[in-house]
Write a structure and sequence with these properties.
Elements: E1 2-5, H1 11-20, E2 25-28, E3 33-36, H2 42-52, E4 61-63, H3 67-70, E5 74-75, H4 78-87, E6 92-98, E7 112-116, H5 121-130, E8 134-136, H6 150-157, E9 166-169, E10 184-187, E11 194-197, H7 203-208
Helix pairs in contact: 1-5
């Protein structure tokens, strides 16, 4: 396991190399730390699930650089575009209908493709360098509260942490400002707003966007 402090001049290139090789990274977002792997690789996504102890049936979402990248993998409808214009980059996950032919990794066995465009320079730079979506799922054991420091995360994961190839340490918490909620998750795959998880962006703010 390699460990780098956020801000190292080579960290984006190194993280992209790890993703291309099928590896897993522990990285900061605009909310919590996440586990990143090639979102279209069955093997890499399986490794992320092993680290978390996560049920195969529970979806994992992906970070993309922008909507132009998102439309390569999912159908970005008018509702999604309106929300993206208002809240992205930011702590919002959009669940979209996946495009035909997208059948591997996080899209395997489901009809949707969840995307995040975080307000975080490292995440956006990595998405541009990698040129593909990479997974974004909180770095914690399934069913447990996410920790906010690399040290505590690795302790919580125990032996499973050995499956992580690269750690980017951005401090505690990664986004600053004390306690952070996860992203708000909304399903807009059918062209209507359906809130699946209320996080940083509360329901009232979302509704007022329309």
């Amino acid at each position: 396991m390699e460990v780098f402090a956020l801000g190292d001049t080579h960290i984006v290139n190194r993280a992209a190399d790890i993703l291309r090789s099928g590896g897993v990274i522990l990285y900061p977002t605009d909310t919590l730390y996440g586990l990143g792997a090639d979102a279209l690789s069955d093997t890499a996504v399986k490794k992320v699930r092993q680290i978390k102890g996560r049920d195969e049936g529970k979806p994992i979402h992906a970070i993309v650089a922008d909507l132009a990248m998102a439309v390569e993998y999912a159908e970005v409808n008018d509702v999604a575009r309106k929300l993206a214009t208002k809240f992205l980059p930011g702590p919002l996950t959009l669940i979209l209908k996946k495009k035909a032919g997208i059948k591997t990794g996080i899209a395997k066995g489901i009809n949707t493709f969840g995307i995040r465009i975080p307000d975080n320079r490292f995440c956006l730079d990595l998405a541009q360098e990698f040129r593909k979506p990479f997974t974004t799922t909180s770095a914690n054991l399934a069913g447990t509260k996410p920790e906010r420091s690399v040290e505590k995360i690795l302790t919580q994961l125990g032996e499973r942490a050995e499956l992580i190839d690269l750690v980017i340490d951005a401090g505690d918490p990664p986004a600053g400002g004390g306690e952070r909620l996860p992203s708000t998750v909304v399903d807009v795959s059918e062209g209507e707003l359906k809130i699946l998880r209320e996080g940083t962006i509360v329901q009232g703010v979302l509704v007022r966007a329309f």
